[in-house]
Amino acid sequence: MMHLAESLNFSGRKVVAAWASVPFPAVRGHSLPDVLCARQQDMPWKLLSSCREEKVSRCFAQSVVLRGICNKRKQPVSPLHACDTAEQVLQQYLHSVFPGAFSTSHILEQPCVTLPPYPRFFSPLLTRQGFLPDKLSSYSAAAVESIPVLTSLQSSPALHTLLYGLYKDLQKLDTRRWASFFAAGVEQDDFHEALQELRTLSQCYEMGFEADKSEDEADSD
Predict the structure, then answer these.
(1) Mean pLDDT by 10 residues, the chain (221 residues)
(2) Predicted pLDDT of residue 196
(3) 23, 126 in Cβ contact below 8 A?
(4) Residue 120: how many CB atoms within 10 A of its CB?
(5) Distance, CA of 190 to CA of 218 (rounded, Å)
(6) Per-residue pLDDT, 212
(7) In terms of Cα–Cα distance, which of 70, 68, 71, 64 is closest to 145?
(8) Which of 24, 40, 124, 132 is packed most tightly, with the most Cβ within 10 A?
(9) Beta strands of the chain (E only): which ranges?
(10) Does the predicted model carry a pTM greater than 0.70?
(11) Residue 41, pLDDT score
(12) DSSP letters spanning 88-108
């Protein structure tokens, strides 16, 4: 995981955010292009890291893995349907939603197994294979045995808010009240140096007007 995070970061960045869709919202009998075309710009995953989710999907680099979905060839009705493989479908989708970002994608046919002791928190509307029913009237009381899953690790501007917020919270600490902390061997100068490094790291995740705003904040500090 550490090496993967390193491969997604450049220009001084060191942190990635995790996203996932458990299960991936696929309708039974529909192809991967069908599912992704129906989502449009609505990303099929949710943020797992403690960042504030942005309204606009943006990232510098990402690694995306989808498992449990195969590509069924149909008559092309969109650029995604014209792709030959599921890997090409996912890569084309990522390029359209995140233009200019470095994106890698992997497809695994084997779904994520959810047999006991996996917790039973799935909707009864899901099929045994974890898909949404093709008809709203469909209902299955059978336990979900496997699910398609989509995960993503992103070097994203969303991390700026998280890192800068952490910097501001630490900056408010009165270190004179934490004698035991510094008694453990941490020097006051080292603490302040680490604090400035955290602030610099947060600035590595800014984009455009955000960088200008950060400079204004720096002047006011």
Answers:
(1) 90 93 88 84 83 82 92 72 89 92 93 91 88 71 89 94 94 79 77 93 82 52 59
(2) 95
(3) yes
(4) 9
(5) 21
(6) 47
(7) 68
(8) 24
(9) 17-21, 46-47, 61-67, 102-108, 112-113, 146-147, 149-155
(10) yes
(11) 66
(12) HHHHHHHHHHSTTSEEEEEEE
Q: Tell me the residue ranges of DSSP E strands in 74-215.
A: 102-108, 112-113, 146-147, 149-155
**Rounded Cα distance, 123 and 127, in Å:** 9
Q: Kindly tell me the burial class for residue 209, based on how many C-beta atoms sit within 10 Å of its own C-beta (0-12, 13-18, 19 or more).
A: exposed
Distance of CA 107 to the CA centre of its chain: 16
Total residues found in the chain within this entry? 221
With left for phi above 0 and alpha for psi between -120 and 50, is residue 12 left, alpha or beta?
Answer: left
Q: How far apart are CA 68 and CA 63, in angstroms?
A: 17
DSSP code of 176?
G
Task: Name the strands in the sheet holding 17-21, side by side, starting at the edge strand that comes first in the sequence.
Answer: 46-47, 17-21, 149-155, 61-67, 102-108
